[in-house]
Amino acid sequence: MTKTMRGLVQMSCAALIAMSPMAAFAQDWEPRRPIDFTIMAGPGGGADQIARFIQSVAEQYDMTNRPLVPTNRGGGSGAEALIHVSSTSDPDHTILVTLNSFFTTPLRQENLGIDIQTFTPVAMMGVDPFVLWVHTDSGITNFEQFLQQVRSMDGEFVMGGTGTGQEDSIVIAFMSGAYDLDINYIPYDGGGAVARDLAGQQIMATVNNPAEAKGFYEAGQFVPLVAFSDERLPAYPDVPTMREMGHDFSYYNQRAVVGAPGMSDEAAAYYADLFTRIYESDEWQAYLESESLSPLWMNADEQRAYWATQVESHRELLASLGE
Amino acid sequence: MEILSLLGGGMLLALQPLNLALILIGVTVGLFIGAMPGLGSVNGVAILLPITFLVPPSGAIIFLAAIYYGAMYGGAISSITLGIPGASTAVATTFDGRPLARQGRASLALVTAAIASFIGGTVANVFFTAFAPLLASVALAFGPPEIFALMLLAFATFVGLGGDDIPKTIFSICFGLVLGAIGFDQISGAPRLVLFDMNGFLQGIGFLVLAIGVYGIGEMIWTIDQARGEVETSTPKMTMRGMASDAAEATRRGWKGTAIGSVLGFFVGILPAAGATPASLMSYGVAKMMSRVPEEFGRGNPDGVAAPEAANNSASTGSMLPMLTLGIPGSPTTAILLGGMVIWGLTPGPLLFVQETEFVWGLIGSFYISNVAALLINLAFIPLFIWMLRMPFTILAPMIFVLSIAGGYAATRDMFDIWLIVIFGLGAFVLRRFDYPLAPAVLAIVLGPIAEPTLRQSLLLSSGDPSIFFTRPIAGPITVVALILLLLPALKLLRRRRGKAEDGAA
Amino acid sequence: MRNGEIFVAGILALFSVYLMVKSAELPIGFVSGRGPGGGAWPFWLSAIMLVCCGFIAFNWWRGTSPPSRSEEPFLDSYGWRMVITVGGALIVFVALIEVISMYGAIAVFLLYYLRFLGRHSWGLSLTISLATPLIFFFFFEGAMRITMPTGLPFTDPLFDLLYEIIY
Question: In this predicted complex, what is the ipTM?
């Protein structure tokens, strides 16, 4: 996890320009039936919210001649979605909204026989940073106090998350390793349940995307302690990053759209054009800002390269988790 | 007083001509979506979300709330007329609704369900209006141990649901629980019980797959076998006067169940993770326990329709509470409503209730209006549903099969699950012939995936010490009551069996 | 019924054992300080299922459960014919979905059931079995936006046309 995102972000403008000739080319192909818009997570989570937001933008501006039909297939950390998309009989009308389980699930479930490099890159809509949160009533206001508290509780400090091997558990595992912490990790079935139990102080801290904790932060119930991003988040300028603490670590959840394996070049160009327009819409740009997502635009080749590096870094992270 | 004026403003907003039209359309659409096996409010809400761009956000949320209410009423319709619970919340409604329909009293069952739903929804709305912020803090006090204790309490009501054959009932409960464990282990993240190493099992087995298999296929084949080729000759008639007398009878014979369901349903509904299914089940169990004629339950007692229907409406309204006060979805449907709020530029969270008063009270006001609209529209459509029942059985039966398969696919979008539905259906027919009660399995597959993770989360919290269920101030009493209830009927049944055995010997 | 009762109990017992074996792929014991392992819940429940099968067999031997005393056959000739014609039709129906699409399979199933099992007139049978899939198409695809399987590629021209109509 040592690559910097900034360089890639700067390339986004270049990529957008490179897209424009493709837009004309894309007119040749149009979907003939409803587009299977599979979501790699259950209803209500961050990925689901984003997918439905994208759908509503497309709907609002009437961008597609056939509707995007969102379907939640969150089972088995996204294994269900990966199997469904890779075995579809109609790859030209099947696209997938991914998160990092796109990388981790095939690694953890090798018997699925999923090779993500066979999927078709479409668009990287942004990356979602992670932040460490505690409840206001805990009295903890900075990361130092958090460390003291965890150490003084000697294994009794309870953190909630969405499950071993999931994004937040990777961050927590890194933190435990880097600071030699003994944390009691409780898996939940979704980010909403985790936020709820932190609000009810059933658990003491979580690592969560800003989008899922924002409401509680604004209500003064959650306190952000440290961000796992490359630079400080604009919405949380006082929250230090893990890099500032001297650890070369940042972690983001990808919010990308990919096409089914075997999608034709024409269809891939159509979807790339479609999602470029959605990405550039005022709605999406406002969403990126309000939910603290970082832009990370890439063209198809860059996305494939990004996948390869992500798979490698996740392989190492999972190995260090003991998976 | 301030609350009343806010609520009044909300109701006035809902009564504006455009919004009122949206409510009427939404309720009607919701009613039919809810009545289709396999489809529920989540379909209606998700799919109609884009349409809401045509109207202002307040109108949109009112429209969605109307669909939500309509679908809740509609769930009872397929339970009663077709015998297929379209949603897990309507399973308990089949216990007495189906026998009533078989006796030619479908209209009584439908009217009872409609009135009970209305009262349940209204009671919940009043609680909601008066105590929302207070109740939100109660809901937050429920962590994993409390939820597990509650599930234990729900299981206690199972004991009374099975047949006379205790080993077969226990088998059925455990079978449902094990089916619910298929897929991934939430705590370790490892794949579990991938039967015959088929990848299709990785996603687990949903409630609807088992319910449609058991009720839509298994029960139907059983009925065809029992009917011996004779057309089922219940020709229910439907007149205005008949409906009025049904309404009177529903009130007279179903008020107790309605009262129990309305109150219990709301309190179970507001709790995180619990929701309307355990609420309807527990209300059914309590209504049976408190009835003077418990032996009538399961044979067509209006109280047995009223209790779960009042409860699931009340609980569904209750499940809006965590969404509005905390910004946390209590069900897939509320999750999508929440997504809608983000699109309209609202931030779900604890401040929503304070800052977006017009929006929140507009929604609550529209709950009241939608509830009234749903009652009236539902009553108006009852003759149509009754008419459907009068179709010759040789037309109705294949239509139910087609609805089951198409509805099952709509719910899961997976051919693997359709094959499972057929397999469960044929298996259920065989087990039904040998007196295995299957309703416990259908309910267990809903409750198991709530009970097991909360049990293990609790033990993780306590580092493996089971006393956590007894020492926490809320979990403790619930656990004790649940254990007493679990053991009491078991002892009673044992004594009865011993008595019977002695009679046999004598 | 008496033979069937013990036969079904035996099958269910075997299935319970299989579930126990499958559950045991994950730890089934109590992990100290962490609570039960991932396989414990299904393993012990399957064990209870096995015990229940034992009791069912015991009741069969004592003859206390109604099916174990019943001399009537599991299904008589009418029952067998019904189960095979209806159950078989369902299996063919589901198999056809992946060949001639959900709507095609519905039409074939309804026609078979109404005409040959229900003995309705050709006119009525054809009307219902053609109208139903059409209504379903507009309801599911048009109103609910749920895409159903379209079968093998040879159905594509028809569906392209239908989608052209509704969108």
Answer: 0.94
